[in-house]
Specification:
6-stranded mixed sheet, alpha+beta, 22% helix, 5 helices
Amino acid sequence: MLTQTQQHLSTLEEYRKLEETADFRSEYHDGEIIAMTGGTINHNRIIGNMYAYLKSALRGKNAEVFMSDLRLWIPVYRRGFYPDVMAIAGQPILNEGRKDEVINPSLIVEVLSNSTRDFDRGKKFRFYRSIPTLREYLLIDQYEYSVEQYVKNESEKWLFQEYEGANANVSLVSLEVEMLMSDIYEGVTFEDEVPE
């Protein structure tokens, strides 16, 4: 979730310096610094479930999973984002040698909220598609059992698949991992959430 906090344009160096000491994270949108707001309980549960499941499933494989504290840099659009979860096949490639920015995810997961769903499906996905290594994009609804999946095939075309219901089986193609919807939504109680 994002809130606009500054109207003037900042250099990338100014942004990075601010991020090193900030009490909260902000994204960088080609000169604009946009503060991220906090998430809901369900949002955090889903992120935790995805991270824990993938961490275990990828053990011993040549892939690693990261949570939302690691920044993803998108050079083509000069954007810095903090995806909710991302996985990297092989070794992380650090942007300009920085230890807090990577450029090579194979999977990105975003948990949708009412305030971010349009951006996550639209412009953000357009920015993400410019990443050569990205093979899969997962959008998880925090208000109901619903997962949207985009997978890039061998012809470089993005294919869409939707999963609904507590018993659905989600196949993460880029990582060769299967997940039950119940694993993604473990501990989530929809009646506790008030849509934003």
